[in-house]
Amino acid sequence: MLPDRKMYALLNRPQNKSGSKPLPVVIIGNGPSGICLSYLLSGYIPYFKRDSLHPHPILQRKLEEAPDVSILDQDLEYLSEGLEGRSHSPVALLFDTLQRPDTDFGGTAESVLTWWHETNRAVPHLVLGRNAPGGAWHSIEGSMITLSRGEWMGLPDLPFKDWLKQKRRGLRNNRATAEDIAQYYQHYVMKKGLQKNFRCGTVVTSVRKVSAESISNHTQKDLQENSDSLWNFNEKRKEIFQVDGFFKTVKGDKEPFFVYAENVVLATGTYDSPTWLGVKGENLSYVHHQLSALEEAVKNSSIGIMSDPVLIVGAGLTAADAILFAHHCNIPVIHVFRRRVSDPGLIFNQLPKMMYPEYHKVHQMMKEQSAACAGPYDCYISLPEHHVLSFGKDKKCLFQDKNGYQKVYKISMALVLTGSNPNLSFLPNNGIDLAIDSDQPVNPKRNPIDVDPFTYECTQEKGLYALGPLAGDNFVRFVQGGALAVASSLLKKANKNPP
Fold first, then answer.
1. 29 half-sphere exposure, CB direction, 13 A CA radius
2. How far apart are CA 27 and CA 267, in angstroms?
3. What is the pTM of this model?
4. Rounded to whole angstroms, how far apart are CA atoms 111 and 159?
C-alpha cells in the first residue's frame, strides 16, 4: 500500500529547510532490525521476570542482582560476559537467551523477560523503508521455507508460533514460509502500535553531516519545548545528519523529501545488490541475478519442459531454491559452482539432514549427477569446481574446470545466484570508510561495518549506528540484540535512563 500525505508530516519538502527541526533518530530500513528497534524506542522496556529461572546459573545470578532495573539500563557487557552460542556478538547472545533460554538445546522454556510500556521513555523516531514493514521479506517468493526455525523469526513479546496458531496453521519441520514471515512483521507493527513511526515507499538517496547552526538558530530550543517530545539534549551538537530521498506517491510520482536527525541507524540489510561475476556478456537480457526471474519465466511460459537448460550459478541456499523450483517444474538445469561438493565450507555440509530434507536432496544431486557421471536425477547436471568464462549472444555459455579444460553449453536463461551486497550508495564513498577494512566494500560476512559491540555505534562516525547484516548479524534471532544495544545507547544520550 502506498503512503498517503498525512503519514509524511515529519518528512519535509526541499523548500522548507530553514525552520526544520531535527528528529532524535532516523532508522533507514524497515526489516526485522528496524522494527525491533522501533519497538524499543517506543517505550517498551524489558525487565527480568520475577520468579523466573534461567538455565544459565551465572546469568541468573546477575539478573537477580538488580531485578527492578530494566535490561536496557543495565551494563550489557557485564550481563553478556561468558555467554556462548551461534553468534559472535555478545549482546546478540544475551538478548536471544533472555527471550529463548534453551532453544539451542531443543528446549521450549519461556522468555525470562516481561515488558512494560513506559511512554515517558519513548524516543521520537522515524523508520524509512522501500516496502511494507518487513523489508526484503516481501521480495522473497512466498512459498520459500525459511532456513531458521519458525520461532527464531519472532520479535519481542509476540511469539511467532502464537501468531501462526491464530491463523490455525502450524510449522512445517519447525520452519515457516517467507509469506508467513512477511505477514507476521506487518501484523507486529500494527499490533504494537508502531505504524505512526513508519514511512513506507521511501527511498533514501543521501545521508550527510551538516552544520546544526546552518539549519535554524531556534531549532534546538523548539524541539526541547515540543510537548510531544521528551527528548533532552546532552550537549549542543555542532553537526547533525541530513537525510535526503524521495517517496512514491499513489500516482507513481517521486516526491523528494529531507529530514534532519541527531542520530541515524543503518538497518538496510544486504538484499539490495546481487553479486555479479564480472564476466563478458553478463549484462545480456537472458542473464539474471534473482530467483524471481525464473519464477516469472515459468509463469509466462517462456521456459518449459522442452526448453534448453537453465544455468544456475552458485552453491548457496538461493541457488538450491532455484534448483528445487526448476526440478518441481521439470525444467532442465545445468548447475555450476566453484567449490568441491565435499568442501566443509559448503552450507549443505553444515545443515542437519533431518531438519532440511529438501536441501539435503539438492546436495545429493550435486554429488551424484555430474556431467562426467550420469546419476538417477533427470534434467540436472552438476559441474563442481567450474566457473563461467563468458555468456554469448547466441545463449552459448563457456565454462572452465579446475584443470583449465573448457566446455560450451547452449542454455535458455542464466541465474547468477552467488550472494548479494548491501547498497550503501546513499553514504559518502558507499560506506567503505565505515568498514572494518576501509579499503574494501562493506560485506556482511567478510567486511561488516566496524561498530562498538555494546552500542553498535560506528567507530568511525559518532551518531551513526549499524544493525543486522551490515554489522555482521545475519539471522533474525540475533539482529535483535543489536537493536537492544542501540536503544540502550540512545536512551543514555537522551538522559532517559533512570538513575
1. 29
2. 7
3. 0.81
4. 10
* Contact yes or no for 164/93 (Cβ under 8 A): no
d(CA 460, CA 437): 12
Taking the C-alpha atoms of residue 208 and residue 210, their distance in angstroms, rounded to an integer, is 7
C-alpha to C-alpha distance for 163 and 382, rounded to whole angstroms:
41
Q: Are strands 44-48 and 273-274 parallel, antiparallel or unpaired?
A: unpaired
pLDDT tens-digit readout, 78-91: 999 999 887 889 99
Rounded distance between C-alpha atoms, residue 394 and residue 408, angstroms: 12
Give the count of alpha carbons within 13 A of 116, CB side only: 11
* pLDDT tier at 224, thresholds 50, 70, 90: very low
Averaged pLDDT of the chain = 84
Say if residues 178 and 146 touch (Cβ distance below 8 Å): yes
pLDDT for the residue numbered 21: 79
Grid cell 525487565 is found at: 47
Q: Are 207 and 264 in contact (CB under 8 A)?
A: yes
Q: What are the phi and psi torsion angles at 384 (to 5°)?
A: -70, 155
* Chain segment 346-356, per-residue pLDDT in tens: 888 877 777 67
